[in-house]
Design goal:
Length: 192
């Protein structure tokens, strides 16, 4: 990084690089595996929970119920999950992975945050605390404290090429899914 940049511009550049890394990883995921970050995370949660309710899945991935319902609609259309209504309470729906869902999960790459978490655990507790405090302060400075945020590194609305790769998802669905994931916009500017 150029030291001729002001401290403020160096900070903005670092944030842009983070946004770009998330964007690039998500694009590769969508292009190579046909899954968005929220879809992959939902599949992983469904695998971890076994047969579970939509509400339990929503809590596990830290997304709203309607967002998870939309994600499950798209995964069910592709045959990756099965949803079954409870015979006694028709409002209650259970979700489980199908064999195709297990196969998709087995061949999907790890999420970007997996590597980040591995590296983060190598730091001393005081370093982790300092990073947390700094990031929380950045979120406050960006007036982003009230945004519903998942502890997942996934970008916001994807570009048209990525949307085309996800053929089963309309642009409106992509925007809704990404907006509710509490994610960063994928339209991050290139770092100077």
């Amino acid at each position: 990084m150029e030291t001729s940049l002001s401290m403020e511009n160096q900070i903005v550049a670092a944030i842009r690089r983070i946004m770009r890394a998330v964007d690039l990883h998500s694009r590769r995921l969508a292009e190579e595996h046909g899954l968005t970050g929220p879809q992959l995370v939902t599949l992983q949660a469904a695998a971890n929970l076994g047969v579970s309710s939509t509400g339990a899945l929503a809590r596990a991935v830290h997304l709203s119920g309607p967002t998870v319902t939309g994600i499950l609609d798209r995964l069910a259309k592709r045959g990756l999950v099965d949803r079954t209504r409870n015979g006694q309470d028709r409002r209650s729906v259970t979700v489980c992975l199908t064999c195709d869902g297990e196969d998709a999960l087995a061949t999907a790459p790890s999420l970007l945050q997996d590597r980040f978490r591995q590296e983060l655990t190598k730091l001393e507790e005081w370093e982790q605390t300092a990073i947390l405090a700094t990031l929380q302060r950045i979120a406050a400075m960006m007036d982003a404290e009230s945004l519903d945020a998942s502890p997942l590194l996934v970008p916001g609305q994807l570009d048209a090429a990525t949307q085309a790769a996800e053929a089963v998802m309309s642009p409106a669905e992509t925007a809704a899914e990404s907006a509710d994931s509490g994610a960063i916009s994928a339209k991050a500017p290139t770092v100077p």
